[in-house]
Structures are given as structure tokens and as C-alpha cells.
TrEMBL record, chain A:
<comment type="function">
    <text>Methyltransferase required for the conversion of 2-decaprenyl-6-methoxy-1,4-benzoquinol (DDMQH2) to 2-decaprenyl-3-methyl-6-methoxy-1,4-benzoquinol (DMQH2).</text>
</comment>
<keyword id="KW-0831">Ubiquinone biosynthesis</keyword>
<protein>
    <submittedName>
        <fullName>COQ5 protein</fullName>
    </submittedName>
</protein>
<keyword id="KW-0808">Transferase</keyword>
<keyword id="KW-0489">Methyltransferase</keyword>
<dbReference type="GO" id="GO:0032259">
    <property type="term" value="P:methylation"/>
</dbReference>
<keyword id="KW-0949">S-adenosyl-L-methionine</keyword>
<dbReference type="InterPro" id="IPR004033">
    <property type="entry name" value="UbiE/COQ5_MeTrFase"/>
</dbReference>
<comment type="subunit">
    <text>Component of a multi-subunit COQ enzyme complex, composed of at least COQ3, COQ4, COQ5, COQ6, COQ7 and COQ9. Interacts with PYURF; the interaction is direct, stabilizes COQ5 protein and associates PYURF with COQ enzyme complex.</text>
</comment>
UniProtKB/TrEMBL annotation, chain B:
<keyword id="KW-0831">Ubiquinone biosynthesis</keyword>
<dbReference type="GO" id="GO:0006744">
    <property type="term" value="P:ubiquinone biosynthetic process"/>
</dbReference>
<feature type="compositionally biased region" description="Basic and acidic residues">
    <location>
        <begin position="20"/>
        <end position="29"/>
    </location>
</feature>
<comment type="similarity">
    <text>Belongs to the COQ9 family.</text>
</comment>
<dbReference type="InterPro" id="IPR013718">
    <property type="entry name" value="COQ9_C"/>
</dbReference>
<dbReference type="GO" id="GO:0005743">
    <property type="term" value="C:mitochondrial inner membrane"/>
</dbReference>
<dbReference type="InterPro" id="IPR048674">
    <property type="entry name" value="COQ9_HTH"/>
</dbReference>
<feature type="region of interest" description="Disordered">
    <location>
        <begin position="1"/>
        <end position="75"/>
    </location>
</feature>
<comment type="subunit">
    <text>Homodimer. Heterodimer; two heterodimers of COQ7:COQ9 come together on the same side of the lipid pseudo-bilayer and form a curved tetramer with a hydrophobic surface suitable for membrane interaction. These two tetramers assemble into a soluble octamer with a pseudo-bilayer of lipids captured within. Interacts with COQ7; this interaction allows ubiquinone (CoQ) isoprene intermediates presentation to COQ7 and facilitates the COQ7-mediated hydroxylase step.</text>
</comment>
Length: 302, 287
């Protein structure tokens, strides 16, 4: 069975040591390629899957990815006025959730303010309505940055379709070299994207750079399942079911084979935590979701 | 301090905020007024005599880059929480108040993510700061008595004044205090809130001169805890000017406690006298 053959490969031999940053050999799934090749291949993967990305997400994870993203947003707990940078945000899932969340918080804030304004004159109440009515997001903004033009295109179409216009901007950029100034953002998120970055350490350093002091780094990513029984089931599902789904739904076996292989190649929770700390973040912590299938890492720029 | 254990690479590139914070502290004192009296530094740092506030390390180094006295994360968290107290009357004991506090320190509002969403840490921080303030106050009074500049108060007056002083610290936050009490009673917070309460009561009795080593130790603390908690609850609902009703309630409860202890000792001595009388009668009868 091909699954067992893939699993029996020693992962350590294929995974490059990140300390030897100049080694040209990198992993692309279970293949070995150079850095440049890797970037190109990954670009092509996402170019191919862009249109069916959301559909595939739903079918692969049985819709659970929505819960994961909701949990990420709940953990972030943004207040109105937050500036979010969503890297590798492609189709905008995190960005839309952010806008919904902030809008709801803002509503509650305005309602509370109104409750306190019991003794104002009509003129004052009218003026406060004027001020707050057009500020439904409370000056919050989200910038979606992605390296792939196709993914951004799909994202923009989705935004138009769902009616998101305020507080949203789309930027083409590379996570390893962000086109933003220092100390700009309150929160930096990268959901299911850091796995595809070729130089993770550079991406983390860039994250540190663009965050304001006190800013938060949040990373939602597939991670290592420690429970052995669950791990076996998960591997079975990943290698047998997902590429087939990819072929049936998106007509693309190879991209989804890459996807599951890249999950196996990605460093486990503790290693990623150490990398985040190396970039300079403090109070780095992670939370496993679904027994480690997915993990949320969080760090602060202090 | 955790920062000092990291290899040099990290110390040089990291902590834009933590290092800068000590620089800012050298240049200008914090402007928030009521928090100036808080000075509960962690055990590993020496307070600076000329600056009365702020839990900062003694950053007397000339070169910012090479100094190892980085503020630790805990100290930064303390500073954020202290700054957040200013916004509690408006926002309540919530993550929003912490976010506003972080903003005043020049940090991003996302720094509030370091704390629990329900504001427990903010409340516990406030309670522990109040307790420290109370300790310092009682210590000062004790010193005055020792130097002979003040008279030693009788026990009931001492207890009354101590509890009143402690409860007065709640006055700026009295509107949102019921919310804080309910958060303190959450199962997750009970160990910490209980230990803060017991250490405060212990402190008061210590400065009151209690040196009991028998069961009295427990009864005294239980009684004072009861007095404190009930007075606190009365204060929540008190709308009299200057909380007069609360202080009168407190006076009555302390008087009750004193009377009760007198009655207890009276009962005991009466009991002993009765027993002796009976014994004497028995001896007489048997003869």
C-alpha cells in the first residue's frame, strides 16, 4: 500500500536542518527540491487549487476548518480599532471572520454607550448617532496579504459576493519579505499558510518586524498528533482519502498529495514554538485543537 | 528574571518594548495619580529611593544595549494591569480595560491577549496591590507607636480602622466591584482570592499584636474574616454619604465580636466557679 511506503520514509533524512539556511535542498512534500523550485511549485499548486480551495477545505476537513478559524478569532478577541495583517490569507476566511467579530463587538459597545446616555438632550443624542453611525467597525482594518495572485482574485470575488467592503484591503506580497513598514500592525495571523513558506524563520522575522510593540502573532497550522491510535487513523485518512477527493472534486491529485505530505514535513508544536521564540517573541504558547491535528501558536512582541 | 537566561543573540534583537520601558521610566514618571502608592516589586529587584513608584529593575546602567536589567514579562504585565485600573470605572473589569491600559503604555491593544478574557488577573492584581498598601500603612503606624509618637490603639479601634482603611480603597471602583466579587468567586479563582483574603486578615491581626498559639488563632481570623466580608457586602449596597452606614455597621460588628469574646471568657470562669462550688459541696457532704 503506497501509504505505508510513504510513512516508512525517515522524515528526518528529508527534512533540511534549518540552521543550514544556505543548503539548496528543501522538501516539497516528500520530494527534495531546491529553494527556487520549491517556491515555484508551491505557487503552481495554489494557482491550480485557487478556484476550488474553499470547497476542498470543506470536504477534506468535513467543515471543521470553520470551527478552527472561529476558535482562532475567539482567541484573538480583537477590539474595535485593531489593525490585522492576515498573511497567506488568500480567500479571506480569517479576514471576513475578523470583520464580523469586530462589528459585533462594536455594536455592543454602542449599545452600552447609549444605555449610559439616559440624560442627554435630543440634540446630543442625535450628534452621537451621527458620529458613530458610520463607524460600524470602529476603525478596525484588515489587510489580506498573499503571494498568489489567483488566491487573491478568488478572495476579492468572495468579498464582493458576500458584501464585505469596509475595512478590507488586498495586497500581493511575500511572507518572507513583507511590503509594509515596521511597527504597523496590532495582530499578525497566518492560517494554514506558514507550512507553505519556504523560509519560515524569515517569515517569523518579518512578522516580528511589522508588528507594533505589544502586538500579537497568531499561527493556525496543521501539526503533530501525539496519540498513536489517532495518528494512524489520521494518516490513513490523509493519504488515502484526501488525494482522491482532490482528484474527484478539483481534478488535481498531485496538489493534494503535496498538501498531506507537507503537513507531515512541518515541524511539530514544540519546534515551531522554539522557532517563534528565536524570532524574538515572548510568552509563546500553543493550543492543540483536535488532539494536535491543528495547533494555534501565539506570541507577543514585547 | 527570565530574559537574562537567553543567549546574547536574543537579548540584542528582542525586547523593543521591555528595554524601552525602562528608558521611558527614567525620563518621566507615570502620570496616573492613584497608582503612585503601589510599589510591590518582585523579590529580585531593588527599589530606587528617589522614585516612589513603579516595579522596575534598578536600571542605573549607562548603556542601554549592554545592560542585563531587562524588565521581565511579569513586571511588564504588572505595569499594564496597573495602567488598566484607571479605565475600570468606565469599562469594568474586562479585557477592554486592559487593552486601554496597554494603549496608555504605548503598546498595541493586542497585548490584552496576554491575560484572561474575564479580567480575573486584573482583579487579583488590584486586590493584591490593596493588601500591600494596607500592610505598608499598618507598618507605618506600628513604627509611630514604637517611636512613641502615637498611642497604641485598643484592639477594637485598631481592627475597625484597619478594615475601614482597606475598604476605602474600593471606593473609586465601587460601582463595578460587585462584578469583581462574582469573578473572584469563580472556582478557577477561588484558591488565589482565598489566599489573598487570608493573608490580609493575618496581616491585620499580626499588626494588632496577636501572638496566640492556640485555637484562638483560628477563631480570631475567622471572626475578622466574617466581619470584613459582611462589611464589604454592606458597602456594596450603601448609598449614604461617605458610606457612614457601612462604618457604623463595622463598628457594631467589631463591638459584637469583642463582647462575644468577653462573654466567652465570662462563661468559662463562671463554669469553673460552679464546678469548684459543686466539688466543695460534694466533699462537705461526703464528710
Amino acid at each position: 500500500c503506497c501509504c505505508r511506503a510513504l510513512l516508512s520514509r525517515p522524515h528526518g533524512a528529508l527534512r533540511p536542518r534549518r540552521a543550514l539556511a544556505h543548503g539548496p535542498e528543501m522538501h516539497f512534500g516528500f520530494q527534495t527540491v531546491t529553494e527556487e523550485e520549491r517556491r515555484e511549485k508551491i505557487y503552481q499548486v495554489f494557482e491550480n487549487v485557487a478556484k476550488k480551495y474553499d470547497v476542498m477545505n470543506d470536504s477534506m476537513t468535513l467543515g471543521i476548518h470553520r470551527l478552527w478559524k472561529d476558535i482562532l478569532m475567539h482567541k484573538m478577541n480583537p477590539c474595535p480599532g485593531t489593525l490585522l495583517l492576515d498573511v497567506a490569507g488568500g480567500t479571506g476566511d480569517i479576514a471576513f471572520r475578523f470583520i464580523n467579530y469586530v462589528r459585533a463587538v462594536r455594536q455592543r459597545q454602542l449599545q452600552r454607550k447609549l444605555k449610559h446616555q439616559q440624560n442627554l438632550s435630543w440634540q446630543e443624542i442625535f450628534e452621537s448617532y451621527q458620529k458613530d453611525k458610520f463607524n460600524s467597525l470602529g476603525d478596525s482594518q484588515v489587510v489580506v496579504c498573499d503571494i498568489n495572485r489567483e488566491m487573491l482574485k478568488v478572495g476579492k470575488q468572495k468579498a464582493q459576493h458576500l458584501g464585505y467592503s469596509e475595512g478590507l484591503s488586498w495586497v500581493l506580497g511575500n511572507a518572507e519579505e513583507l511590503p509594509f513598514d515596521d511597527d504597523k500592525f496590532d495582530v499578525y495571523t497566518i492560517a494554514f499558510g506558514i507550512r507553505n513558506v519556504t523560509r519560515i524563520d524569515l517569515a517569523l522575522q518579518e512578522a516580528y518586524r511589522v508588528l507594533k510593540p505589544g502586538g500579537r502573532f497568531l499561527c493556525l497550522e496543521f501539526s503533530r498528533v501525539s496519540n498513536p491510535l489517532l495518528s494512524r487513523l489520521y494518516d490513513l485518512y490523509s493519504f488515502q482519502v484526501i488525494p482522491v477527493l482532490g482528484e474527484v472534486i478539483a481534478g488535481d491529485w498531485k496538489s493534494y498529495q503535496y498538501l498531506v505530505e507537507s503537513i507531515r514535513q512541518f515541524p511539530p508544536q514544540e519546534e515551531l514554538k522554539a522557532m517563534i521564540e528565536d524570532a524574538g517573541f515572548f510568552k509563546v504558547d500553543y493550543e492543540n485543537l483536535n488532539f494536535g491535528i491543528v495547533a494555534i501558536h501565539s506570541g507577543f512582541k514585547l | 528574571v527570565r530574559c537574562q537566561q537567553y543567549p546574547p543573540l536574543r537579548a540584542l534583537q528582542a525586547s523593543a518594548v521591555l528595554r524601552r520601558a525602562s528608558d521611558e521610566h527614567k525620563k518621566e514618571p507615570l502620570t496616573s495619580s492613584s497608582q503612585q502608592h503601589f510599589d510591590s516589586p518582585p523579590a529580585d529587584h531593588q527599589p530606587e529611593p528617589q522614585e516612589p513608584q513603579g516595579p522596575h529593575p534598578s536600571y542605573t546602567g549607562q548603556g542601554g544595549q549592554e545592560s542585563e536589567d531587562y524588565e521581565s514579562e511579569e513586571q511588564l504585565q504588572h505595569r499594564i494591569l496597573t495602567a488598566a485600573l484607571e479605565f475600570v470605572p468606565q469599562h469594568g473589569w474586562t479585557a477592554e480595560a486592559i487593552a486601554e491600559g496597554a494603549k496608555t503604555l504605548g503598546l498595541s491593544v493586542a497585548a490584552a491577549g496576554m491575560f484572561q478574557r474575564d479580567g480575573s488577573e486584573l482583579i487579583l492584581h488590584f486586590v493584591s496591590e490593596c493588601n500591600t498598601k494596607l500592610s505598608k500603612l499598618l507598618e507605618k503606624e506600628q513604627k509611630l507607636v514604637q517611636l512613641g509618637e502615637a498611642e497604641k490603639k485598643p484592639i477594637d479601634e485598631f481592627l475597625r480602622d484597619a478594615v475601614e482603611a482597606r475598604l476605602r480603597m474600593l471606593i473609586p471602583y465601587i460601582e463595578k466591584w460587585p462584578q469583581a466579587l462574582s469573578v473572584l468567586l469563580l472556582p478557577r479563582n477561588i484558591p488565589s482570592s482565598l489566599s489573598l483574603l487570608t493573608s490580609m486578615i493575618d496581616d491585620i491581626w499580626h499588626y494588632a499584636g496577636d501572638q496566640s498559639t492556640d485555637f484562638n488563632w483560628y477563631t480570631r481570623r475567622a471572626v475578622l474574616t466574617g466581619i470584613y466580608n459582611t462589611t464589604e457586602l454592606v458597602m456594596m449596597q450603601d448609598s449614604s454619604p461617605g458610606f457612614e452606614d457601612t462604618w457604623r455597621f463595622l463598628e457594631n460588628r467589631v463591638a459584637d465580636a469583642m463582647a462575644m469574646s468577653n462573654t466567652a471568657s465570662q462563661v468559662q470562669s463562671t463554669g469553673e466557679a460552679v464546678v469548684q462550688g459543686l466539688m466543695g459541696a460534694a466533699v462537705t457532704v461526703s464528710n
